[in-house]
Amino acid sequence: MAQPSRIIDKTAAELAADIREGRLTSVEVTTAFLDRIEAVDATVKAFLHVDREGALAAAREADAAIAADEEASPLAGVPVAVKDVVVTKGLPTTAASKILEGWIPPYDATIVERIKAARMPILGKTNMDEFAMGSSTEYSAYFKTRNPWDTGRIPGGSGGGSAAAVAAKMAPLAIGTDTGGSIRQPGAVTGTFGAKPTYGSNSRYGLIAFSSSLDTPGPVSRNALDAALLHEVISGHDPRDSTSIDAPVPPVAEAARLGASGDLTGVKLGVVKEFAEGAEAAEPGVIAAYEAGVEQLVKLGAEIVEVSCPSFTYALPTYYLIAPSEASSNLARYDGVRYGLRTGDDGKHSLEEVMSLTREAGFGPEVKRRIILGTYALSAGYVDAFYGKAQKVRTLIKRDFEAAFEQVDAIISPTTPFVAFKFGERTGDPYQMYLADLYTIPSNLYGGPGVSVPVGLADGMPVGLQVCGPVMGDDIAYRVAAALESTQDTPLADTAPELEGN
Amino acid sequence: MTKLNSYEQAVADYEPVLGLETHIELDTNTKMFCGCPTAFGAEPNTQVCPVCLALPGALPVANKAAIEATIKIGLALNCRIAEWTRFARKNYFYPDMPKNFQTSQYEEPLCEEGYVDVVVEGETYRVEIERVHLEEDTGKTLHVGGATGRIHGATESLVDYNRAGIPLVEIVTKPVPGTGALAPEVARAYTAELRDIVRSLGVSDVRMEQGSLRCDVNLSLNLPGEAWGTRTETKNVNSLRSVERAVRYEVRRQSALLDAGERIFQETRHFHEATGETSPGRSKEEATDYRYFPEPDLAVMEPSREWVEELRTSLPEPPRKRRERLQEAWSLADKEMQSVVNADAVDLIETTVAAGAAPAAAVKWWLGELSRRANETGDELGALAITPAQVAELQGMVDDGRLNDKLARQVIDGVLAGEGSPAEVAAKRGLEVVSDTGALETAVDEAIAANPAVAEKIRGGTHAAAGVLIGAVMKATKGQADAGTVRKIILDKLS
């Protein structure tokens, strides 16, 4: 394989080393990615907002700091794209919703503060399903993002923008958020790497809330090590988030390097019996690519053990009660009173009517669907049967995981049952859309980590393999994923079709 | 016109059942879920941040000082402190509530099952506490452009979020039956006792006029021997006196409705300070389903038993014990002390005594002249524009002979009118006892000359007649003479 000739072909780790050792400057690197955005984003449409000026200013500062021998973070100078659900001071943040159009946050999310402290320039804000509700980015209120592998197909969701930006080499790294699979499923269908860290290990402060007990920010990259490096930049306890875990960050970069050595001797990998038996089985191509990946893992010394997680069967309905319930409350604040869109403020409408008109005009169909679903699930007379029952099943799902992790080190599965589908294919039937997260949702309900690593192609479209670890066992997931990468001659992410530039 | 029964008739026919919900703003330095300051009266929207404005992405962190204060209140109210407790979201839309949900507590309050004993007319009533929980306050909406400051007719609504997120403790009693005709007094005594307990803990300034203690009064009536009736909840009850009046009004109103065979609607009513009446607010029938669920943004709280016991031992002297101690120190009879308590003057008198006045004098001023002034204007005693220190200063001037009682009352007029301290008022108004005996002797001579017949009587030994001459001298000196001194001069001259 030829050495990458272009800056944008390099991994984040390579770029960081080049910048640190003076072979490249952050300004050169950042400029290369900004130019790439300019060249291909008209086609991909991954970005809602590009901050060329801000990114270059940060790059200059990073270069100055490195020149001054300031203690540099492992990713100093490497640019990153940020999903638009993460609040960035002075940069428009909309969560891809009309209701937040034009809102400029006065503060930074904790993870953005950490990105800035690590001297990583922020390229811009990436597209997503509105308020992170969706699996195709088709529910963005602004525009659809295209899958760089086939621009007639979706890039996954909700973080389709971050995944597509990395897949199209418009950014070496991106930030995503994962509530039911929104980092991992877009990773799988765009041939990129995505990690949902342990819930509570990465601060949610400044993350526009969808479902508070599930939302987790995490890295998107082209390989496990790059993701692990970014993971370590953003991770760690945050006193501003009460659900933040006050414990050392699992050594994920070390684990990724260990995995890259290609030895999984003694590692037990669980395969969930109930996934294979599911009525909504994965596409044959997905299963074939996944099984080929499992064979590779066995060759590296891993032992495959079947585990039973009977409650996983109920994970999808459980999720679609808990997440919309919390969302119905989290999204109540968008009322046109303090910020964002205000509709009907013409002197003819009462305050309550203005609030109602604003929400009617500002929210898209999927957001409304989930607010209604959640409001219903929490209503007097129904709350015990829906929200309450779902919480009980959630406990059972956690127990299934805990029991499984007594037998195995990690659990593997396909990341998502199907490859990137065509635009419009699943918007008509919400359930068909929701199935995209069939395999990713359980770890959100449990709170443990899950990563999606490219494993192969099915009909020319990328397939991802998911590795789930125990709570605060993010390192094992990275290790297994990096080991799988080591079996691939060319990283899958590097084989994406070259896009037409302009 | 709302029909009203006479109170006496109402309580002769029906049995009232009380219930009180009290909200107390804690005076923690920072808000409940963020680091914003909590000072009262700041410029609108200057004490706000992403968290209390509910900006997208902001998250709450619970204020430990507020949790501690709530546990103290719970302990002082003889409650059980939860070993496992959490916050819950109370969902409803309101423009001055930034998140459109209130972070409160639902099924797992911090404190449960306590009681407060109050004494009314020599009887002890036990008011049982159902729960004490912690929540956050809302902002304040100001409707401008309308005639009355209310939403109707307003052209604009302005919201001040300074108060949004201030820690609020809600204390809910169980229904209180068996108070009969004394329901208003029991309601008032409970509120006063609660206020004194909380004030003694130093966790809130519990000032009803500033809204740091707010009271909702629940009341229902039932015929003797029958099940409890439907209750109304009267809000906006902002003084002890109003608590009493609100109960009295609802007893009269509900009894008239029941007499007429009508039913009582379970509804929220508003109390009107000016008229002492209540009017319907939003009825519960159309009220919101709050869709409570556990707050996923906040960790559960598990107050350790060691901490709770530590707080228990740190509790100050309960107000009831304190009153017993003060009664003894002030040498007051039970009845006098009861009057002091009823007038809500314990703190005022204690502070006045601490500022140097004799207990008897302090009691005399506050229960006498000052209570009369408060009654005239319908104010609480503590709301009068005179401080205990000023009362002590006034009494000091009397003790020094610089003021007599009559002059002292005029000085009070000046202090209440905002003219300054007693000394300043006396100086400005020229209200000093005339101690120049030369001037007094001249005045006495003039009085004797003008009233020869009276003078003759006194010379004859009828000393009681001196009153006429004293009066004349007082009139001539515009009351600024000391009556004792004048009497002595007269008797000296005429004996």
Description of the structure:
- The complex is a heterodimer of chains A (502) and B (495).
- Chain A contains 17 helices and 11 strands.
- By secondary structure, chain A is α/β, with parallel strands linked by helices.
- Chain A has a single domain (7-272, 405-495), classed as Amidase signature (AS) enzymes (Alpha-Beta Complex), CATH 3.90.1300.10.
- Chain A has an 11-stranded mixed beta sheet.
- In chain A, helix 11 (315-330) packs across helix 13 (365-377).
- Chain A is globular and about 65 Å long.
- The two termini of chain A are 27 Å apart.
- The relative contact order of chain A is 0.14.
- The model of chain A has no long low-confidence stretch (mean pLDDT 95).
- The radius of gyration of chain B is 28 Å and the shape is elongated.
- The longest helix of chain B has 20 residues, at 240-259.
- Chain B folds into 3 domains: 7-311, no CATH class; 319-424, no CATH class; 437-493, Arc Repressor Mutant, subunit A.
- By secondary structure, chain B is of the alpha+beta class.
- In chain B, strand 11, helix 4 (240-259) and strand 12 form a beta-alpha-beta unit.
- Chain A binds chain B through residues 86-87, 93, 95, 100, 103, 105-107, 109, 204-209, 211-213, 239-243, 325-326, 328-329, 332-335, 337-339, 347, 350-352, 355, 375, 378-380, 383, 387, and chain B through 50, 53-62, 89, 91, 93, 95, 98-101, 151, 155, 157, 159, 289, 291-293, 296-299.
Short synopsis of the structure:
Chain A is an alpha/beta fold and 502 residues long. Chain A is built from 17 helices and eleven strands.
Determine the fraction of residues in helical runs of chain B and give it as a percent range. 25-40%
The tally of strands of chain A reads 11
Helix and strand pattern of chain A? HHEHEHEHEHEEHHEHHEHHHHEHHEEH
Cα(first) to Cα(last) distance of chain A is 27 Å
**What's the story with the biggest beta sheet of chain A?**
11 strands, mixed
Percent of residues of chain A in beta strands? Answer: 5-15%
Q: Using the coordinates shown, work out and report the CATH topology of chain A.
A: Amidase signature (AS) enzymes
Main interface pair? A-B, 46 and 31 residues
Q: Trace the largest sheet of chain B across and list its strands.
A: 2-5-6-9-1-10-11-12-13
Number of helices of chain B: 16
Sheet having the most strands of chain B: 9 strands, mixed
Q: What is the second-level CATH architecture of chain A?
A: Alpha-Beta Complex
What is the helix content of chain A? 25-40%
The CATH superfamily of chain A is identified as Amidase signature (AS) domain
- Amino-to-carboxy terminus distance of chain B: 71 Å
Structural class of chain A: alpha/beta
- Oligomer category: heterodimer
Q: Structural class, from secondary structure content of chain B?
A: alpha+beta
